[in-house]
Specification:
It is a multi-pass membrane protein. By secondary structure, this protein is an all-alpha fold. It has helices spanning 2-17, 21-32, 35-40, 43-57, 63-83, 89-107, 110-120, 123-140, 144-154, 158-182, 188-195, 198-213, 217-235. The longest helix is centred in the C-terminal third of the chain and has 25 residues, at 158-182.
Length: 243
């Protein structure tokens, strides 16, 4: 029952914001389940969510609009996958957390929001954000925040932003499923456990969709920034002190 509730809330967050499923689901599940199961049980449920959003919102996008970001991400994800041991994971994650928080604070002001938009709509700016997302995705599976910052800054239209995110996360998910199958995270047993919670995920998704339609762009961005701030917290483990 508790697992279903957590996955329902995670699905609500994804349906509302276009991201945040893993951010909401995995940390509390890891408190009551082994970490491997906390990752494996929610993961299969992401694909129906990604497919629905891709179908609903993806057609509003053109290849030209998202090409810079996807090109940057595709190049960097391979680099990140092979270079994660070159740098300190803690330092890199805290750097991403700092970038995320600065972006949130910038976007909270009209002038800052326009500044981020001007960066995201250019080919170099979009490619840079794609590289940032792809590299962190390949190295630490933590590329969500740069993708969200790029999509919400580039598209004032909420549905187009969610369309870009759903297409990107669907592509990333296809890569991750191969990885998780190869390293044993996913199995027939975990898939069966995941399916048991599908009704809760569906209810959460439907409620999130209803709620999102009732809020303004400002309300939507507030929800996005809260989820990004939560991501920044998760990326910044507490500093260990001696003694």
């Amino acid at each position: 029952m508790l697992i279903s509730l957590i996955l329902g809330v995670a699905s609500f967050s994804f349906s509302f914001a276009g991201f945040g499923y893993g951010l909401i689901a995995v940390p509390p599940l890891a408190l009551i389940l082994p970490v491997k199961l906390a990752v494996a049980i929610p993961f299969p449920l992401t694909f129906p969510l990604f497919f629905v959003h891709s179908y609903r919102y993806g057609h509003r996008l053109s290849w030209t609009e998202i090409k810079p970001f996807l090109i940057g991400a595709a190049i960097a994800v391979l680099f990140g996958a092979f270079s994660f041991h070159w740098f300190s994971e803690i330092v890199m994650k805290r750097t991403l957390a700092m970038f995320t928080v600065i972006s949130i604070l910038t976007a909270r002001y009209s002038m800052g929001e326009k500044f981020l938009h001007r960066i995201a709509v250019t080919f170099p700016g979009g490619t840079f954000l794609g590289i940032l997302s792809g590299w962190f995705m390949g190295a630490y599976t933590a590329g969500g925040p740069p993708a969200v910052i790029s999509a919400t800054a580039k598209f004032p239209d909420t549905e187009k932003a969610k369309g870009m995110l759903s297409v990107y996360f669907l592509l990333v998910g296809l890569v991750l499923i191969v990885l998780f199958l190869s390293n044993g995270v996913l199995s027939l047993d975990t898939l069966e456990q995941s399916v048991l919670h599908l009704p809760a995920a569906i209810v959460g998704f439907l409620l999130g969709d209803i709620f999102q339609k009732k809020v303004s762009r400002k309300g939507y961005m507030t929800g996005v920034h809260l989820l990004l701030f939560w991501a920044a917290i998760l990326l910044s483990p507490p500093i260990e002190t001696a003694g």
